[in-house]
Amino acid sequence: MSPNGFAERLAMFWVNHFSVSAQKSKTRFYVALYEAEALRPNLAGPFRDLLRAAILHPAMLTFLDQGRSLGPNSPRVKKNDKKGLNENLGRELLELHTLGVDGGYGQDDVRNAALVLTGLTVNARGEAVYQRQRAEPGPIEVLGKSYGGPRRTIQDVEAMLDDLAAAPQTRRHICRKLVVHFVSDKPPTELVETMTRAWEKTDGDLRAVYKAMLDHPAAWANPNEKARQPFDFVVAGLRATLADEQDFAVPPAKAKAMAEPEMDERETAAPGPVAKGADGDDEMMMSEDDKMTPGGTQEGRTSQARPHSVQSAHGARLAQSRSTDLAAVEPGRLSGRVRRLGFRQPDHRPHLLGAAARPPPRRADRSGQVPQGRVGRRRPRRHDHHRVAGAEPRRRRGADARLP
Predict the structure, then answer these.
(1) Global pTM?
(2) Residue 395 resides in a domain
């Protein structure tokens, strides 16, 4: 458990405020880095720095499909007409992250904010980048302020984020959410006003806002008014019992039982020596006999399996088990075990059964002719009676049966 419980509560608050979801396949790789890189380092700094780090992180851009957003008049949209403007990030930015639901903006502001954000995307290496070919050209007005010009840059996005962070609606929205999270579901008005004044006086310094909340008498007036969340309840119970990290350690005997079983030496043998790379990491190095030539073959070796590799050892045991199982089956009979191994007739494979095994004799069909292309009888098919010598074709039922 962390010795600074208040900082952990703050981390939970901001993770919920700038929320992303790991349920989205493209976002799950960034969620852990998002909290560690964007949120935790900026918990006690200016809010504009926290807003920039959260909005411009690959996790947020991927979660809100910013990579699919193109300016309607951008050079990129002319090459790909299937994509267009995506308002997800612009709407979340105004409604949840800064101004709030009652922040005094309209649909035009949402659309224009999304236009300013065009150009932001995530490249193939998972980095947040700004591509001017995707950005909407020209000046764009959001809440009475103009951003951009003939040549759009990332500075236009940062300027809009800074203005939203300094807006009076943002101060009230964030301070009220902090009071609801820490103090009461019905936040006292005087406490919210004190925090907004501290925000305005320090230009959004979150440390001063936290201090104003904790120093206000209203924050401690009703200690039983705020119910703990399930996670907070469990942590509080552990703190009350003076639990330590050693109390949750796995006993050595149980840890040994949970360990993976030891593998055979042949299965754990490596194909070549292990050497240290320049960066200190272990990297596999192939021996001289295992190196591939430009033609695609190994130098000095045939195509036979290497007995020291895991794959070749497993293949040898599998081939041996198959030959042993097939040798125990009498010729002409089919067992369930052989069927599960993938073979049809065990006596059709003399190289597995031995030289004494021979294919079964070919049988004649009903016409008295011996088939030349197949071994054994084929499965009867529908309307096979038409092919029997002397058999009259069966008349079809229905309307076609009345035709001459």
Answers:
(1) 0.61
(2) no
Task: Tokens for 293, please give them.
Answer: 């030539």
Residue 327 contacts residue 353 (beta carbons within 8 Å): yes
Q: Do 231 and 314 lie in a common domain?
A: no
Are 230 and 343 members of one domain? no
Closest among 219, 242, 244 to 6, alpha carbons compared: 219
Contact (CB, 8 A) for 45 and 209: no
Domain match, 11 and 103 both: yes
Phi/psi class of residue 287: alpha, beta or left (left: φ > 0; alpha: ψ in -120 to 50)? beta
**Which of 19, 123, 131, 121 lies closest to 61, judged by CA?**
121
* Residues sharing a CB contact under 8 Å with residue 352, sequence separation 6 or more, in sequence order: 322, 323, 326, 327, 346
Q: Which of 206, 221, 240 is the last residue of a domain?
A: 240
pLDDT in tens, 159-195: 999 999 999 999 999 999 999 999 999 999 999 999 9
> What's the domain range around 176?
170-240
* 363 part of a folded domain: no
Give the pLDDT confidence of 270-301 residue by residue, as tens digits. Answer: 444 444 433 333 333 333 333 333 344 444 44
